[in-house]
Every structure is written in structure tokens, then in C-alpha cells.
Amino acid sequence: MHQFLPFAWFQGKCVPFEEARVSIATHALHYGTAAFGGMRAIPDPSNKSSILLFRADRHAKRLSQSARFLLKDLDEEAILTSITKFIKANSPTKPIYLRPFIYTSDLGIAPRLHDIETDFFIYGLELGDYLSPEGVSCRFSSWVRQEDRSLPLRGKISGAYITSSLAKTEAVKSGFDEALLMNSKGKVSEASGMNLFMVRDSKLITPGVDQDILEGITRASVIHLAKEMNIEVIERPVDKTELFISDELFLTGTAAKITPIRQVESTILNTNRPIMNKLKLKLIEITEGRDKKYENWITRINIAD
User: Fold this and answer.
1) Which of 104, 126, 148 is the last residue of a domain?
2) Is 174 buried (19+), middle (13-18) or exposed (0-12) by CB count in 10 A?
3) Coil/strand/helix, residue 28
4) How remote is the C-alpha of 74 from its chain's centroid?
5) 79 to each of 121, 132, 168, 275, 299, how far by Cα in Å?
6) Domain extent for 112
7) Mean pLDDT throughout 101-112?
8) pLDDT band, residue 300 (cuts 50/70/90)
9) Contacts for 124 with CB less than 8 Å, ≥ 6 apart
10) 9 pLDDT above the threshold of 90
11) Predicted TM-score (pTM) of this structure
12) How many domains are there within the chain?
């Protein structure tokens, strides 16, 4: 059972979560004409009157860019201002996940993006580990990741997640935790809602942005940190068989954070993950506001004001 935060940001103000409702005729509900973000926030371990958001500016920028695919201007500062008001209204005491969402709110039936009303809301829920920190089992999905020429994959467009939903359910129903999607070129793309990293011969390898991936913010953070640690990072096409013989394999995402893959299909993978563990510990240190070098990756919201 989800523990939703008591207030949502809806139609320009904070309202009780139960009052944030849309019509069954809402355009986005029928056509997937919406875009969303996902952000994590935690109470500051050293100051309980402060809430820490990880890379809020990057999340706001990506959502603003996603909105442009819907022909809507959504200002980054307006997003951050709304999130701040939302956080202060809820004053969370546990780690949370928040979902800012822009959508076509018109009640018309024509599939279009021009001459149509849009709206913006935010809601949140308490969230600990989305995936098991001990590791997940994965299978290759029979569904193929969409191509950028058919969907704007640089944005988090809600309609695109039907493929993720199909792949995730297929994986779970067949006894696995998560799905790995190939792209139309037969290369590994990503998981149902996470980016993929592989370690081979002490090199960190991940599918490049030309492999129909979502440009994940946690992914970009991991790449940056690895380079700072003098770990060689290679962005390139990844073949299916490489995963079975990888030294380390893990997923990254806002909800998943850094999660190891312990099994691919019937192959059990190595549990010695020195590079992943090093990156994971550094990311935790940063998100908890304990690394002054990366203070600019953290947005602090004082809920005592």
C-alpha cells in the first residue's frame, strides 16, 4: 500500500491529495500526451528541519524540455518554486519520491497537441528501496525499446511507458525481477525504467545516447563520478552476450538509485562489485549532503520557515 503525502500541487496551489482529481475525459488519459519527472528527497541527516533534493535543477531542466515535445512552455524556475511549496506543505519525515507531471488537461477527443489546454501537478509518496539492494534477476524482454524516430525518447513521455509496463510484467510473471530491453538494432538499450552499466576489465561501459536510451540523471551522475575517480568510462553499443560475462552489472535510476544485477536469464553473476560499490557509497554520501565538493548537486529546503 502506497503512503501518499497528504498534499498535492494541483492547479497552481497545494490541496489535500484526495481533492486533486481529473476527469475521466482528460485528454492525456486517453492518448498518453503527458510528460513526467521523478525526484527523490530525504530529510537532512544532520538537520531534521531541512529536506535535501538530489539534482533538482537537472530534473527541472529535463521536465521543461519534455514539456516542449507537448508544445508547452514550462519554466524551470516555476517547476522548482512549485516543488519547494509542495515540500514545505508536506514537511516529510521520511525519504520520499515526488512526481511532477505536465499533461493535456483538455476534455476533447481529438489526438492533438495544438490548441489544447495543459496543466501541471505534483504528488509524492514515501519510498525506500524500489529494488532490492541485494541485487535483482533480469531477463531479456520480448518487447523492443522504441526508436527515437517514432517517439521523443529524450523526454519522459508518459505514453512511451506502455513498453516498459509490458516488459516489466512479462519479467515478473516469468519469475524475474526486472526486464532488459534491446533496441531495434539488436543492442542492449536499458531496463524497464533504469539505465544499465557494465564493468569489464576495470572499464565502466554503458549504452550511449544513440542506443535509444533515456538520458538518465543518475546515469549522468555516475559517469561524472567515475571519471572523477579515474575509472575509464566508455559509452558504446552493448551486445547481449557481453552481459553474461561481465565482471559487474548494475542499474541506475532515480527510484532504483544504484542496484546490482545478480542474475541474467539463468546465469548467476559475480557478487564482487568493487567499482559499483565505490560509486554507490559516493552517491549516498552526496545525496545525504556529506560531500562539500558536490554541494551544488543538492537543493536544501528549510521546512521550518
Assistant:
1) 126
2) exposed
3) helix
4) 19
5) 10, 31, 30, 35, 13
6) 7-126
7) 96
8) very high
9) 4, 5, 8, 41, 86, 90, 92, 96, 97, 98, 99
10) yes
11) 0.96
12) 2
